UniProtKB/TrEMBL annotation:
The chain crosses the membrane at residues 12-33, 129-149, 156-175, 181-199, 206-224, 230-246, 258-277, 330-346, 358-376, 396-415, 422-441, 453-471, 476-495. Residues 13-413 form the DUF7657 domain. It comes from the Bacteria. Keywords: Membrane, Transmembrane, Transmembrane helix. It holds the Pfam family DUF7654. Residues 502-646 form the DUF7654 domain. The keyword Membrane applies. The keyword Nucleotidyltransferase does not apply. It comes from Clostridium acetobutylicum (strain ATCC 824 / DSM 792 / JCM 1419 / IAM 19013 / LMG 5710 / NBRC 13948 / NRRL B-527 / VKM B-1787 / 2291 / W). InterPro entries: DUF7654 (IPR056071), DUF7657 (IPR056074). This is Predicted membrane protein.
Length: 647
């Protein structure tokens, strides 16, 4: 045990060096955790060589392999080298700072360290840099924030770093907004704290002030208020409590005030710069029918979702039968046993002082506010002035769970040190909590997800964990919890090598060749659902009009619908596809974010379409105005590229 403790202390001491070595080795090996091999279902690779090396491809993660990663590849393949506005996506192009934080050659990229690899190393190694820098930095940040919360408890901080980073909600949404915002939130809190702690050291305070500025910019530029708003309030709680804890030792010099002013000036400069180059795109985004016009007033979740994390252990191994795995994933937490314990800790003034409890009290209070919003409607005016009008219950649930994780980490450190509760009390609390968990599972749609025997196993595990937490048995709790977190978190995303799933095929090579010879020519794809092959085209450097638009390409839609009769259909974030007809162009809203455009052959000229990617013959659509010249056919994969000729 002593040797193990010494080993852990050495790992903690050299954690930044170890993380750097792992990062270099993994990037050099061209590894990432993308589900890009899903593309091989649509376009099989040459020589049948797969990019997947280990794990299960997550086809459900379309936001990653079909939306976000192709956006990043489109930046790398653009002849203008990571432009702010990528004119290969749609008629008007897309602002790529808005588009899932894609890499851009702009000052705003300073706040996105996981994107630097694309600019330095290109698309393959850049994607590896993205995944491993973000993963390792999040582990390090989570350790630091837990170290702050626990007032220096190293074993619990190590557990916390794994707990947060490998929580299913973070891993299933790692490349999207939730992964980004958890990263930036923790970066803001950690740099804020260490700036205050290092006011006497000039270099450190400048470093942490600059890092704080970048973290604030990065947090803002994610532009996902459904998670940003509650995290902002949680951040205020952290900052106020940390400041109160440190205030007696704080002495601000004139130079410190100047550093703070310059830091906020740097934040303001970046955000003003972003606004000036993105003003038009932002206005379009804010005025969309979905999600821009949505006003939330709460009360839209069923009660059982508070403990939805109970099905987390099964998600990497079995698809959910109620909602998709991403939507039901969450963070393990122990809010329910602690809601019984913290009031008694407050009452127990013999062993604990109120200053020891203020962090936990504030977190519980904020968690209760979030619970109220999830289950009860509030007046619209109150929702708007608090900005909760932008917050959906599903996304607030994740922030509530993260709040409860921090509460659980804090409580584990405090209870294991003070041991205020008896075994009998701990058993009673654990039994009541397990009963609540039982009711949650067997009175919700998830009761048929797996057979009861598996649920009883999970209930037994959480009964034991709740008991160990309340009774203060830190070591046993840490071991069991760490095993469960690693097994159910590290197995979410596959280990992939390179980006060949997009490029190691004849179709890719032909699209690249044709696009390089015709860089301004418009493409569309037909015969596919949700513009999947449209994304493939712009990921390979073609200028494609379908695929995914983070905000509507109004110039394109005006060409097809000059009187805006279908504005409510296309004025939204959307996956969209084209199919051809010899009748009048029409629009279909297949889902809140999925559009099908049934395009009149004669309207191809309005869009100046020059190339069409299809999987069936277009000869029957030829007429006196338009004919189709077949310039490439892949007989194995049934893809045909047509050149459109207008008479």
């Amino acid at each position: 045990m002593i040797k193990l403790k010494n080993l852990m202390n050495k790992i903690i001491k050299f954690r930044y060096l170890i993380a750097f070595i792992i990062f270099i080795l993994c990037v050099a090996s061209d590894f990432n955790f993308s589900s890009l091999p899903a593309w091989e279902t649509y376009v099989p690779q040459n020589n049948n060589i797969s990019s997947k090396t280990l794990g299960k491809i997550r086809y459900i993660r379309t936001d990653e392999w079909f939306v976000q990663t192709p956006f990043y590849m489109a930046q790398a393949m653009n002849k203008n080298h990571y432009p702010v506005n990528n004119n290969n996506i749609g008629v008007s192009g897309q602002n790529m700072i808005l588009n899932y934080n894609a890499p851009v050659l702009d000052i705003t990229v300073l706040s996105k360290p996981f994107n630097w690899g694309f600019l330095l190393l290109g698309k393959g190694y850049g994607l590896s840099w993205y995944w491993f820098s973000k993963l390792l930095l999040l582990i390090l940040l989570s350790y630091e924030i837990c170290y702050i919360i626990t007032k220096g408890n190293k074993p619990i901080s190590v557990l916390g770093s794994l707990w947060i980073t490998f929580s299913p909600a973070v891993q299933w949404w790692f490349m999207q907004h939730i992964g980004d915002l958890v990263f930036y939130f923790e970066a803001i809190i950690v740099t804020y704290y260490y700036f205050l702690k290092n006011l006497t050291t000039k270099f450190k305070k400048i470093f942490f002030a600059f890092a704080f500025s970048l973290s604030c910019i990065g947090f803002t530029l994610v532009i996902y208020p459904a998670v940003q708003v509650p995290l902002f309030y949680l951040g205020i709680i952290f900052m106020v409590i940390l400041f109160m804890n440190l205030k007696k030792d704080l002495t601000f010099k004139i130079s410190d005030i100047l550093i703070i002013i310059l830091s906020f000036g740097f934040i303001a400069f970046n955000l003003i710069h972003f606004y000036l180059i993105s003003e038009g795109s932002l206005k379009i985004l804010l005025n969309t029918a979905y999600p821009g016009k949505r006003v939330s007033t709460g009360g839209d979740l069923p009660w059982y979702v508070l403990n939805i994390f109970l099905i987390n252990p099964f998600l990497p191994f079995k698809d959910s039968t109620y909602k998709n795995n991403c939507e039901v994933s969450n963070l393990y937490n122990f809010f329910f046993p602690l809601i019984f314990c913290v009031p008694l800790l407050v009452k127990n003034k013999l062993k604990l002082k109120i200053k020891d409890l203020k962090f936990g009290i504030c977190l519980i209070a904020f968690a209760l506010i979030q619970i109220f919003f999830m289950f009860f409607k509030i007046p619209t005016f109150l929702s708007k002035i608090t900005l909760f009008s932008y917050v959906t219950g599903e996304r607030l649930l994740v922030v509530y769970a993260l709040t409860s994780v921090y509460l659980s980490i804090w409580a584990l450190a405090l209870i294991s040190k003070k041991k205020p509760f008896t075994p009998i009390f701990s058993l009673i609390v654990s039994a009541i909590t397990t009963l609540i968990y039982y009711i949650t599972i067997f009175h919700s749609p998830f009761r048929i997800y797996v057979t009861p025997i598996y649920y009883y196993l999970i209930l037994a595990i959480f009964f034991i964990l709740s008991f160990l937490l309340v009774y203060g048995k830190k070591t046993y709790f840490t071991i069991i919890m760490a095993i469960m977190i690693i097994v159910t978190g590290i197995t979410v995303n596959p280990l992939t090598k390179g980006v060949n799933s997009l490029y190691n095929n004849n179709l890719s090579k032909n699209i690249i060749s044709i696009s390089q010879s015709n860089p301004s020519a418009n493409w569309i794809s037909v015969d596919n659902t949700g513009g999947i092959m449209g994304a493939f085209i712009y990921a390979n450097g073609g200028k494609c009009l379908d695929g995914v638009n983070f905000y509507p390409d109004l110039k394109k839609w005006k060409l097809l619908d000059p009187k805006h009769r279908n504005n409510l259909i296309y004025n939204r974030y959307s996956h969209f596809s084209f199919n051809l007809t010899d009748k009048k162009t029409s629009f279909k809203l297949l889902a809140p974010d999925n559009i099908e455009v049934i395009l009149d052959i004669n309207d191809l000229k309005k869009l100046k379409v020059k190339f069409i990617l299809a999987q069936s013959s277009l000869d029957n659509y030829a007429n006196s105005n338009v004919v189709f010249d077949k310039i490439y056919q892949d007989r194995v994969n049934n893809y045909i590229i047509y050149k459109v000729i207008y008479k």
